[in-house]
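ok new one. same drill as before - C-alpha cells go in, u give me an amino acid for every spot. 364 of them this time. try not to just spam alanines like last time pls lmao
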C-alpha cells in the first residue's frame, strides 16, 4: 500500500491542504500540539473508518466548521485507487473509487495500515479492554464481517443487560432471557473462535520478532484468558457449549448484578516471557519489546494477507524506545511506506525520506 496523496478540509486543527508523501519514510515533525497526530489519524481513518484515539466523528471536524472531508489517492491491489470520507455531525459517508459504500468497514478491504502510538505502550499492564481492542482491531483489518459480528454481539449484550435490570423488578421475565443467551452463544462462539485463530498466527510471528529483539534470550507466549474456560484448541462447537454452560452457571449472579459476566466482552490476553506473566513481572523494556513484537507481527500478517506491505504509522514512539529497539523497528518495517511523528527529526539512514514540518496545523 502506498499513500500517493492526502487531502484534508476542516479536519481537526489541520489547515486545508494536499500533501504528497514519498514511498519510503515520511517524517512529520513539529512542537507539541501542532497537528502531527491529527495527520496520522487522517491516514489511519482510511484503514476502516475509525479513529485510533477512539474519537467520535464530530470530534474530527474542525471547531470552526460543521463538516469535514478527507481524501486519499493510494496504490493498492496493483492499481491506483481513491477514497473519500465526509464527516457531518456524528455521521460519515465513505466513497471508494467514486462508489458510495454502506459502511466504512469496506475501507479495510482496499487499504491497510498499522498504527503504533504511546497508548499501546501500556497494552501489557493496563486493563483488559485495551488488549481486546488490540486483537479485535487487528482482525477487523483482515475481515470486514468481524466488525459486523462484534457490533451485533455488543448490541445483544446491551439488550440482555437491559433485560437483567428488568428481571430484578419483574422476575417473571426471566424465562425470556434464553432468547438473548441463544444469540450470544452463536455470536460469542464465532468471535472467540476467530480471535483464537488469529492469535495462533500472531503468536507464531510475534515469537520470532521477540527472539530477535531479545537476542534469542526470551520466549514470548500469548494466552487467551476466557471467562468461559475456553481453551486454545477448542472448536467453535466446543466454545458454544462452554458458553452455554457458563451462561447458565452465571445467571443468578448476572441478575443480581444486572450485567452479563461471561463471554468474549469479558475475556483477556496474557503475555508470558519465558513462562512468567509479563503483566506482573515484566520490566518497562520487556513490555516495550512485547509490544514491538506484537505490532511487527500484526504488520507481517497484514502483509501476508494482502500480499503487499501495510502502511506503518509510528506516532511519537521512537522517543519512547531505546536506540537498539528503534533500529529493530525501522529495519523490520523496511519495505513499508512509513510515517513517523516526533518533536525532532530522528537519526537514521534511509535513502527515500521526506520531511514535513507542521506548525499550527499548517503542513509544509
Ligand atoms: N476538532 C478539532 N478542531 C480544531 N482543533 C482540534 C480539534 N481536535 C483537536 N484539535 C487540536 O489539535 C491540536 C494538535 O493535536 P495533535 O494531537 O495532532 O498534536 P501533536 O502535534 O501530535 O502534539 P504532541 O506532540 O503533543 O503529541 C491540539 O491542540 C488539539 O486541541
Ligand atoms: Mg501527538
Amino acid at each position: 500500500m502506498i499513500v500517493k496523496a492526502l487531502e484534508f478540509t476542516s479536519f481537526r486543527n489541520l489547515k486545508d491542504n494536499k500533501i504528497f508523501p514519498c514511498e519510503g519514510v515520511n517524517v512529520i515533525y513539529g512542537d507539541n500540539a501542532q497537528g502531527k497526530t491529527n495527520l496520522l489519524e487522517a491516514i489511519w481513518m482510511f484503514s476502516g473508518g475509525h479513529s485510533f484515539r477512539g474519537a467520535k466523528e464530530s470530534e474530527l471536524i474542525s471547531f470552526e466548521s460543521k463538516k469535514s472531508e478527507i481524501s486519499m489517492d493510494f496504490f493498492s491491489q496493483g492499481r491506483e485507487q481513491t477514497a473519500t470520507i465526509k464527516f457531518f455531525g456524528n455521521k460519515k459517508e465513505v466513497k471508494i473509487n467514486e462508489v458510495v459504500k454502506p459502511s466504512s468497514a469496506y475501507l479495510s478491504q482496499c487499504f491497510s495500515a498499522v498504527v503504533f502510538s504511546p497508548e499501546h505502550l501500556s497494552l501489557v499492564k493496563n486493563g483488559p479492554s485495551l488488549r481486546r481492542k488490540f486483537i479485535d482491531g487487528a482482525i477487523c483489518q483482515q475481515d470486514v464481517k468481524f466488525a459486523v459480528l462484534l457490533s451485533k454481539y455488543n448490541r445483544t449484550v446491551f439488550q440482555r443487560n437491559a433485560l437483567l435490570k428488568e428481571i430484578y423488578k419483574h422476575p417473571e421475565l426471566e424465562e425470556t432471557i434464553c432468547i438473548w443467551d441463544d444469540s450470544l452463544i452463536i455470536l460469542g462462539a464465532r468471535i472467540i473462535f476467530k480471535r483464537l485463530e488469529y492469535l495462533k498466527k500472531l503468536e507464531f510471528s510475534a515469537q520470532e520478532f521477540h527472539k530477535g529483539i531479545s537476542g534469542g534470550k526470551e520466549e514470548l507466549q500469548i494466552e487467551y484468558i476466557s471467562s468461559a474456560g475456553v481453551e486454545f484448541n477448542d472448536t467453535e462447537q466446543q466454545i458454544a457449549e462452554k458458553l452455554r454452560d457458563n451462561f447458565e452457571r452465571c445467571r443468578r449472579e448476572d441478575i443480581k448484578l444486572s450485567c452479563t459476566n461471561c463471554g468474549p466482552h469479558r475475556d483477556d490476553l496474557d503475555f508470558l516471557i519465558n513462562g512468567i506473566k509479563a503483566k506482573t513481572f515484566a520490566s518497562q523494556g520487556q513490555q516495550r519489546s512485547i509490544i514491538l513484537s506484537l505490532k511487527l507481527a500484526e504488520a507481517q500478517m497484514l502483509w501476508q494477507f494482502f500480499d503487499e506491505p501495510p502502511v506503518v504509522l509510528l506516532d511519537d514512539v521512537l522517543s519512547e524506545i531505546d536506540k537498539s529497539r528503534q533500529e529493530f523497528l525501522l529495519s523490520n518495517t523496511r519495505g513499508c511506506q512509513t510515517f513517523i511523528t516526533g518533536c525532532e527529526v530522528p537519526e537514521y539512514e534511509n535513502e527515500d525520506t521526506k520531511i514535513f514540518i507542521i506548525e499550527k496545523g499548517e503542513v509544509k
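The mean pLDDT is 93. and btw Residues 36-37, 315-316 surround magnesium ion (ligand 2) (CB under 6 Å).
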